[in-house]
Amino acid sequence: MSKYVYFFGDGQAEGSGEMRNLLGGKGANLAEMTAIGLPVPAGFTLSTEVCTAFYANNRNYPAALEEEVAEHLRRVEVLMGKSFGDRDNPLLVSVRSGGRASMPGMMDTVLNLGLNDETVQGVIQQSNDPRFAYDSYRRFIQMYANVVMGLHGDALEDIMEEMKDERGVELDTELSADDLKQLVTLFKNKVKESLGRDFPSDPYEQLWGAIGAVFGSWMNPRAVTYRRLHSIPAEWGTAVNIQSMVFGNMGEDCATGVAFTRNPSTGERLFFGEFLVNAQGEDVVAGIRTPQPINKAGGDGSLPSMEEVMPESYAQLMQIQDTLERHYRDMQDIEFTIEKSKLYMLQTRSGKRTSKASIRIAVEMEKEGLITEKEAVLRVSPEQLDQLLHPSLDPNAAKEIIAKGLPASPGAACGEVVFCADEAEAEAKLGRNVILVRIETSPEDIHGMHAANGILTARGGMTSHAAVVARGMGKCCVSGCGDIKVDYQQEQFTTRGGQVVRKGDIITLDGTTGEVMLGQVPTVQPELTGDFNDLMTWVDKYRRMKVRTNADTPHDSKVARDFGAEGIGLCRTEHMFFEGERITAVREMILAADLEGRKAALAKILPMQKGDFLGIFREMKGLPVTIRLLDPPLHEFLPHSDSEIEELAKGLNVSARVLQDKVESLHEFNPMLGHRGCRLGITYPEIYDMQVQAIMEAACELVKNEGFDIVPEIMIPLVGHVKELAILKANAIRVADEVIERYGVKVEYLIGTMIELPRAALTADEIAAEAEFFSFGTNDLTQTCFGLSRDDSGKFLPYYVEQEILPNDPFVAIDQSGVGELVRMGCEKGRAARPDIKLGICGEHGGEPSSVIFCHKIGLDYVSCSPFRVPIARLAAAHAALMDG
Amino acid sequence: MSKYVYFFGDGQAEGSGEMRNLLGGKGANLAEMTAIGLPVPAGFTLSTEVCTAFYANNRNYPAALEEEVAEHLRRVEVLMGKSFGDRDNPLLVSVRSGGRASMPGMMDTVLNLGLNDETVQGVIQQSNDPRFAYDSYRRFIQMYANVVMGLHGDALEDIMEEMKDERGVELDTELSADDLKQLVTLFKNKVKESLGRDFPSDPYEQLWGAIGAVFGSWMNPRAVTYRRLHSIPAEWGTAVNIQSMVFGNMGEDCATGVAFTRNPSTGERLFFGEFLVNAQGEDVVAGIRTPQPINKAGGDGSLPSMEEVMPESYAQLMQIQDTLERHYRDMQDIEFTIEKSKLYMLQTRSGKRTSKASIRIAVEMEKEGLITEKEAVLRVSPEQLDQLLHPSLDPNAAKEIIAKGLPASPGAACGEVVFCADEAEAEAKLGRNVILVRIETSPEDIHGMHAANGILTARGGMTSHAAVVARGMGKCCVSGCGDIKVDYQQEQFTTRGGQVVRKGDIITLDGTTGEVMLGQVPTVQPELTGDFNDLMTWVDKYRRMKVRTNADTPHDSKVARDFGAEGIGLCRTEHMFFEGERITAVREMILAADLEGRKAALAKILPMQKGDFLGIFREMKGLPVTIRLLDPPLHEFLPHSDSEIEELAKGLNVSARVLQDKVESLHEFNPMLGHRGCRLGITYPEIYDMQVQAIMEAACELVKNEGFDIVPEIMIPLVGHVKELAILKANAIRVADEVIERYGVKVEYLIGTMIELPRAALTADEIAAEAEFFSFGTNDLTQTCFGLSRDDSGKFLPYYVEQEILPNDPFVAIDQSGVGELVRMGCEKGRAARPDIKLGICGEHGGEPSSVIFCHKIGLDYVSCSPFRVPIARLAAAHAALMDG
Predict the structure, then answer these.
(1) pLDDT-based confidence at B7, cuts 50/70/90?
(2) What pLDDT is attached to residue B758?
(3) Is residue B150 scored above 90 in pLDDT?
């Protein structure tokens, strides 16, 4: 028979930290903390298998579960010396979710469970504090009614606000025990009135209701969204943790707090956190009261720290955090409660951190001997680097600072102000940059936070929902900005200085300083620290795959090389066709009546194109450069509107009618599947001839005049059949060898192809007979494999991703089972036919970590990505290699 | 050491009929005929391996070849009692190509080789006929100069025409021996003058020149075109046959002829052919003189037959043709020559025939006990049926007959008159129907004949180039139409009756009667004979795959069922959306602002769509019907021009602006890869719901009211990911089961999908978990696999096919290594996941024989094709099954 429930308490635990998949992160860590002797309130965990069984079995629990829960509850009662539902000495419990991966704020929690009109008397008796007892009771009803019974949160909040108004008080804490007792009755009446059923008084009914709510919440839209954003499979399920309550809100010798063993923003090795006296944990996280710093070093002196207020507990906590970090060998995010001066640990987990912190912590831990180089590399997630590599505010730029909040998540962001998540999403879909401004955020805002460039909240600390989630997303956030007053109604906020900022106005956030500025402030490139360089040295030591860049200009080539690019994987020559006077020559070529006319126009383009290659080769000296010959259909170089056509016709000295006819004759129903790529090279060989000539002349000149070492890789795009490549390769060799002979130098060059059509992947063995390298063009391959036009998919693809019809946007992360399968087949067949073939990828997937890891697995030699993603790809490649073994 | 040369002569042969691949068809048959004791002039064959080696080795012969040829030549000399190059008794030879597959007129031939100023004296001595000797000599120079040396044919022809003008004669035969002798000198001078080198007098130099020309001609453009049209690989190569000359032009006791052992047009068991007295074989085939019939039964009495003129030779020939047919067990196409009353067999090969003849011969031979049922089935090529199944002229229609020629290739054709092959091709590319009218055709006209609907020639018999090629193509042809006078200059022809028909005028040909009619004459469906039915009975007995049809209307369904369709493989519901008032409702649906609006519009379409299904189900009673839910993007249902939009806006009572906006918002860059297929079903589930409801209501009503047996197969198009299908299947089941319950009847139904995207094929195992059947949509699969838009490929695909970059147009014959590989994988994975899954194909490949055979090989359950191609697919399926075992 399966075991579904795992006990922990008093140094004994049935689970352990290893059992994360079964017990969830929280449950595993509670077991682990218990086992290593830390003070953890006793409790037990319903494993994720219950969740799986629950959904597999039409939302029914396994038969044995009820008895198993009852048995474990008895064990907790014995240990705590309390009895669940007992009117004299009642055991109260918390019910919390806890999945395999941390999903902050996404899952529902119920505290103080077990309270009813009878047991509340027992709590009064035990605590000798009726106000505390009724406060706990009314909190329980509020939470339970909302989370378990589905009553809208405002319904009870409004009753309490009314009472505060009546009593003429502002804070919850100013309400008396009687007020709170009355609230309990009012709340229960409201529940009955709104939902048509009584608030459950039976503690067991409460317990099973809460368990059901946790499992049920696994499939609520917020959780589903979060999983989608973080690629967490629904099959993982969540565990449920049931744990004895301890109270941080039983008086001034009580407190609750959250802390990080190192600074999650900078990575500095400094115990860092916040706490609130006489409060429950949710008060810290929800950001309703602004919390105090845990120690003097972490505060600004405006509020007394725990180190000062509760020195003994602080010393104990310091000890514990050190134990935890050494035990887990990673920076921990902990929650604790002090009840009547006794410290309890409620949670520990690997702490979320900024990319900067992530790198610093990893590198310093390695230096401290806590972890190895390899572990340090694996500690930094490639996605995080994105944040680090993005620009920050230009320190020399003029800034009109209108407010200042907490530096909750670093980076700079700029955009139009919006005040609600839906609007943020809608505007972002239109391509606008927006800053989401909220009094505070909640899980309902996730989609808007995701869509926004940055987040600004008026309330909440460094561990508030907004701060935690924004850091997770690598998104700039300023939280707890008390300087601003947000008016949702008027769609504006007012600063302390009286500045009114309305919806649509542009502001800039600096998530590293907490500053809010009016208008757009210029940014500068990120400065990469010594830690970053240390880490990347290790990264390069452990990865197998090379990382190249996609670059079409000398400037981009230089940026990428500075970021560690080891060559160019894709130089798109068509971009060179659009610039300045070139486009005129290109248009002349298209309009030419015959071969001679086309050749004359191409002769004008040749020196310009050659100049581009000279610049790029110089930047990439000593490294390989893959140049793709012309790819887009010719109509892309012609104007389309009548007025543009008229103007161009004048410029080219042809009649508008002739030009119009040409535009029409080149029109295509499906340009993506049209006369482009090597099909142009086949029908207009003179175009590719010119390009090959330009490439080889540039290479030969450098070899001849500048002592260069360069191996141009000439890439033929959109090959579907080996004969296309065979013909174009023969042409290219003819032109290249003619140039080489003319210059009288020795230049090696390779000729290869993009594999970007399913047919090319399917017949890669045939194609490899001609190709010296393959570069998988996974953008186009995704379009053809899915039959999905990137330009047209906006009408349904977002819906597909939202509804989890597709696990990811396949243009972002490679679709491993479809597109990836073609790439895998292409590699296998390519290598079978030509064992030394060079294999790479140059689609945008080349800079997306999960795709890079996939590329490693199937054995590619390199990935190529945009310059700013080069370090991400390097790190992902190292992860892939280290995960290998 | 390899053997390259194979001897035949005097009952001895080193080769045999089996060695077709090595010796070519002609060489193998010469060996075979020799071996079975028929009178064949001695000779030898250079095998196809010489050709392969020649091209593999940069156009050089194998080292041993020269000696081997010399040795075999000596053997022939001994046997014939003549000596090659001997001035007293010279051996003359013919040099002919002969590939594995018959390629009429495509390869070059040289006759009378061995003649020079000295040996011609020997011929005079032996024949005692100087006129014959010089005529042979001048013919040899003409042929050799043209074929081997590359002199334009007209160059020498003009000299001869001049001489005839000078002599005041009309026919070649009217020139004297002296004239001809003089011509020889003039010809040689002209060669020297035009080519700058002497005409070779050394017989060995002549011989090797001719051998080289034959091998060289394997790669000439005409041969390449023919191979492309007939899917003959270049790797097969050609053999060269060198054979002692015999002469049908040595006097009135000489003759030459070609004949078929049965009538190639009707299939009647009647020896059928033509001959010319005192002529060489080329005279019959080229159609310069109108030949006489071989027997009384085959003629119209206007010319004396061989049976009457040369009764003894005729009797011998009758005997031989009977031997040959019994030996080869197939209708033979033979060539013979009578030299001084002695009969020689020059060639036998399987005779080309019309589809009608093909069927009759196969069925009758089976009844005669010559062949088995299976052989009979294999004797009829599926491609041929196309011809048979096409309409013929309505016998009751008024016809303005303006001329009559020979019924060279049956069927009816109608189109605009054009006078040159290039023009025929150009016009056909524009989608026009054309009739190619020529004085006579030559291999240079092949591409035009292919492009034309029908061919009309003024000269040439039933075995002329035009007739033979047209029959091979299954194309209507009227040849030898002496009633017309063609004027290429004026681009017109004039009939005997004075009717002038100009380029662009429409005429109709009846290839079965030889009639030429002015204007377009209505046609009727073909009447399928008893032979056809006998054959198709055998076909159905031996095939494994089912054949369904693609039909969207009750009418098409009926036609297809009459042709033997065993169900509908593809019923496209969108065609039903375009008709009459439906399109208005469809447009209302598209323009509806919300779900309710769409539902209201769909409710109007429901009864109409249901009516369609009722009609189709009734025609298909007892057979499966696969209905594809809506596939095209919605913008296809809206107008696009401003005026149409304005008009429609009025009709729908909306502003043109609103309609314009909708049209613009629905615009797609790549509609092929856009918001269509199941993507519509996902985003607008109400559309598919309506369609499923219509299908199921129709089925239920028939079951309830008409005692029907029908299993609707609901097909979801364009699935790329199994979840799409899972969602839409669940919707369909909900709607279908609701309908079934409402009607209270039992109706089984299947839900499956099109596999028409590479991703679907690659993940077919996952998709098969939801799909009860797969129908491979190879049209779209070809587009996505190749990245090739069918609509846009016109700018390069014809060039690709022409240049043999692709072996075939992949939209016509399935691309087996790319698209076919996806289909194969799809089948394999689909069956692995669901062993009883139904697998079929519904692209246009389903009616193309090579594709049908491929479908059989990979294990499909059925193919589906357009109604007229159903018998073709049935026959191809039988061929596939018979070739299997």
Answers:
(1) very high
(2) 98
(3) no
Determine contact, residues B325/B331, Cβ cutoff 8 Å. Answer: yes
Contact B715, B691 (CB under 8 A): no
Sign, Cα dihedral of A478, A480, A484, A487 = positive
Structure token pair of residue A140: 């329980």
pLDDT tens digits, residue range A670-704?
999 999 999 999 999 999 999 999 999 999 999 99
Indicate the helix (H) or strand (E) that contains A840: strand A838-841
Name the strands in the sheet holding B406-409, side by side, starting at the edge strand that comes first in the sequence: B401-404, B515-518, B506-510, B412-418, B434-438, B454-457, B476-479, B406-409
Residue in the block written with tokens 């809100």: A249
Residue type, B303: L
> How confident is the model over A715-743, as a mean pLDDT?
96
pLDDT, tens digit, 9 for 90 and up, residues B575-610: 788 776 788 889 999 988 889 999 999 999 999 999
Exposed/middle/buried for A10, CB within 10 Å: 0-12, 13-18, 19+?
middle
Give the integer Cα–Cα distance in Å for B711 and B709. 7
What beta strand segments (E) does B484-556 contain? Answer: 484-487, 492-495, 500-502, 506-510, 515-518, 523-524, 546-550
- CB proximity list for A178: less than 8 A, separation 6 or greater: none
For residues A402 and A395, what is the distance between their CA atoms, to the nearest angstrom?
17
| Cα A72 from Cα A50, distance rounded (Å) | 15
CA B229 to chain centre: 7
Q: Does B682 touch chain A (CB under 8 A)?
A: yes
CB contact under 8 A, B682 and A800: yes
Give the total residue count for chain B: 885
A387, A354 contact by CB (below 8 A): yes
The three-class DSSP label of residue A562 is: helix
Ramachandran angles phi, psi of A865, nearest 5°: -150, 175
How many CA atoms lie within 13 Å of A763's alpha carbon, on the beta-carbon side? 24
Contacts of A795 in chain B (CB under 8 A): 674-675, 683
Contact B787 A756 (CB under 8 A): yes
Dig out the tokens for B636 from the structure: 């296809």
Q: How far apart are the first and last CA of chain A?
A: 35
Which residues on B lie below 8 Å from A759 (Cβ)? 785-787, 815, 818-819
| pLDDT number for residue B443 | 66
Higher pLDDT: A738 or A226? It is: A738
CA distance A213 to A230: 22
The pLDDT value recorded for residue B75 is: 95
- Rounded to whole angstroms, the Cα distance separating A373 from A16 reads 26
Which residues does chain B have within 8 Å of residue A762's beta carbon, measured at their own beta carbons? Answer: 785, 817-818, 821-822
Nearest to A755 by CA among A840, A818, A631, A815: A840
CB A306 within 8 A of CB A322: no
Nearest-Å Rg of the Cα atoms of chain B is 32
Q: Is B134 helix (H, G, I), strand (E, B) or coil?
A: helix
Q: What is the mean pLDDT of residues B167-187?
A: 91
For position A836, what pLDDT does the model report? 96
Residues of A serving a catalytic function are 465, 842
Calculate mean pLDDT across residues B111-126. 94
pLDDT at B1 over 70: no
Nearest CB neighbour to B727, from listed A670, A780, A805: A805
Bridge partners of residue B94, in order along the sequence: B243
CB A616 within 8 A of CB A625: yes
Task: Answer whether residue A105 shows pLDDT above 60.
Answer: no
Q: Does B675 touch chain A (CB under 8 A)?
A: yes
B364 contacts B267 by C-beta, under 8 angstroms: yes
Binning chain A into helix, strand and coil, the percentages to the nearest 5 are 50, 20, 35
How much of chain B, in percent, has pLDDT values that exceed 70?
96
pTM across the whole model: 0.78
Query: What pLDDT is stored for residue B105 in this prediction?
Result: 47
